[in-house]
Structure prediction request, 386 residues.
Amino acid sequence: MRDVVVIGGGPAGLMAARTLAQCGHDAVVMEEHPEIGAPVHCTGILGRDAFDELDLDTRVILAVAHSARFHATAGNTATIESDQVHAAIVDRRSFDVTLARRAEADGAEIRTATRVSQLVMERGRVRVFTATGETLTARACVLACGAKYRFNQQLGLGLPKLFVQSAQLDVAFPPLEHIEVHLDHRRLPGGFAWVVPFRDRGQSRVKFGLLGGEHAGAVFDDFSRRVAARVGVDPSPWPRPRLRILPLGPVRRTYANRLLAVGDAAGLVKPTTGGGIYYGLLSGRWAAETLDVALRRDQLDATRLRAYELRWRERLGPEIRAGLAFRTIAARLDDKAISTLIDLANIDGLVPTLKRTANFNWHRDATLALLRNTEFRKVVLNSFWG
Ligand SMILES: Cc1cc2nc3c(=O)[nH]c(=O)nc-3n(C[C@H](O)[C@H](O)[C@H](O)COP(=O)(O)OP(=O)(O)OC[C@H]3O[C@@H](n4cnc5c(N)ncnc54)[C@H](O)[C@@H]3O)c2cc1C
Prediction:
């Protein structure tokens, strides 16, 4: 019998497997795709600090951004630059591959092209059945299968509080000075669209993406074509974007007898942006550390494993609550209010406030500072009752 089976070879599962292997446990990752990291659905931005904190390979960083330009539908823009913000844009496929290599180097086994089709919790063990007819037994299981919730429902863990549609495409494109964030209340209420410039093997490229709204594909086409027209690029040869559903809030419970849920499977993403790589890595590590103690003591019942949920709730709970509250307010701001806020960012205290408080991985301070800003509050109140 293996110590731990990890279902899903994304950042959360790979970090869990690596940490378990480092602690001397026998961990096996089962990943349904033939290759780790593919297909890519994600823009791959995370705070640069995470690389030191979590001992990640910096060679996968394509660019580091310190600024973003916010666009209102009325056409006005505000550029926020901050020496404090270091947003690393990574090659997401290589990011996952290097995580997998490090997990293997530390002793974890990674099986690709292995889809778990059934998960059976038995007395004293977990049994997984694969689509190819294999069976494997383990003392415990880490659920790291991303935004797929069949096993969550089977185990009574519940679903994320909120889901949004998203779309993304990576194409060759002329260089752009800043990351662009486009706010459009009518079509993307509470969401936004983005253009992230970077260079890959000497070629200038961008990642277009969006989240929110109801018709992600159609809104994406219109948005990306408008940005392309602005710089004189013909978008007709571009492939279709990848469309995905993105979770934006934790599931009800992230532990059960012999099982912990991490990353997107636990709904652990930043509700402000939908970014989940950092929380996925953190939760993968915390889950492994909880399991390390539980495996050594052979105490793998839900009451012992609850320590993992207490840990992430203590660290991430205030961030997630502030993010969800901000999201609720942002979703109600109309385009006129967004345009006013962008003008305000150019002339008054919003920019210093953001510069002082912004941090790419941790959003609570900036969120609370904005909500306390008198001018910001006036615009919000006018938008709600004006
Ligand atoms: C358009 C878009 C853009 C994004 N941009 C960013 C960004 O810039 N920054 C950021 O931080 N986050 C971003 N995210 C979110 C980020 O991609 C996820 O939060 C992150 O990948 C979660 O990691 P994970 O390991 O939990 O899940 P995943 O990365 O989804 O990995 C789960 C793995 O489990 C496998 N799997 C699923 N079911 C099974 C099964 N039954 N058997 C075996 N394997 C299985 C899947 O194939 C997958 O490889 C974006 C998401 C989208 C949709």
The chain has three domains: 2-65+86-159+248-316, 163-246, 325-385. The CA atoms of residues 286 and 308 lie 6 Å apart. The first helix runs from residue 11 to 22. The two ends are 64 Å apart (CA to CA).
